[in-house]
Design a protein that fits this description.
By secondary structure, the protein is α/β, with parallel strands linked by helices. 42% of the residues lie in helices and 14% in strands. The protein has a single domain, classed as Rossmann fold. The protein has ten helices and five strands, in the order βαβαβααβααβαααα. Helix 1 links the parallel strand 1 and strand 2. The longest helix is centred in the first third of the chain and has 13 residues. The mean pLDDT is 93.
């Protein structure tokens, strides 16, 4: 089964993540999306993030009603530090023989994909799916600064034409820290969990 690996901190997970996943599933480019919360994200070293358990529980509350969206706690079980995408993908394949993994990233990640650990191996071994992020849409010339023409074209072809979902976990954390609870982007169950746990305050 074609399964899009969607890794991230998800702190907090929000309706933008859900709408994105539903839109990509509807496009037919993949059959299933696997949300994989990071245990020790390399790009978050030294930054304060919520516990893995809190982020996992919020994801379960957000994604509970879609059978084609699954959550993996493999990063907690593996406890790699840092947890590089290439290592996690190999572990998922070991646990799921025959799975056809794809990598789902945003346009901002595409722009810096060359900086990822073993980026060339990632592109060689797994299909990339890129969703758009406003103000971050690398063109071919941008990619050619870091990739050869064949690689740049493969990455360009990974870009989907779809709506922007204008929200970020960072902006939600900032709002909550200021005493606002953005109901438009956080479902009731997730909001209740955040309040009960006193997150982001």
């Amino acid at each position: 089964m074609r399964t899009a690996f969607f890794g991230g901190t998800f702190d907090p997970p929000h309706l933008g993540h859900l709408k994105l996943a539903e839109h990509i599933l509807a496009s037919g480019i993949t059959e299933r999306i696997m949300f994989v919360p990071a245990f020790s994200p390399p790009h978050k070293r030294g930054k304060r993030i919520s516990s893995f358990e809190d982020r996992l529980q919020m994801l379960k509350l957000l994604l509970k009603d879609n059978e084609n969206i699954i959550i993996s706690d493999i990063e907690r079980r593996a406890q790699l530090s840092p947890s590089y995408t290439v290592s996690i993908l190999k572990l998922i394949e070991q646990e799921n023989p025959g799975i056809n993994l794809q990598i789902l990233i945003g346009g901002d990640s595409l722009a810096y994909f060359h900086t990822w650990h073993k980026a060339e191996e990632l592109m060689k071994n797994w299909e990339i799916i890129t969703y758009p992020r406003r103000d971050c849409d690398p063109a071919r010339d941008d990619l050619l600064q870091h990739w050869n023409p064949k690689e740049a074209d493969i990455l360009l072809q990974s870009k989907l034409q779809m709506p922007y979902f204008e929200i970020s976990s960072t902006s939600l954390r900032d709002l909550i820290q200021n005493g606002e609870y953005p109901e438009a982007w956080l479902p009731d169950d997730v909001l209740k969990y955040i309040k009960k746990r006193g997150l982001y305050r």
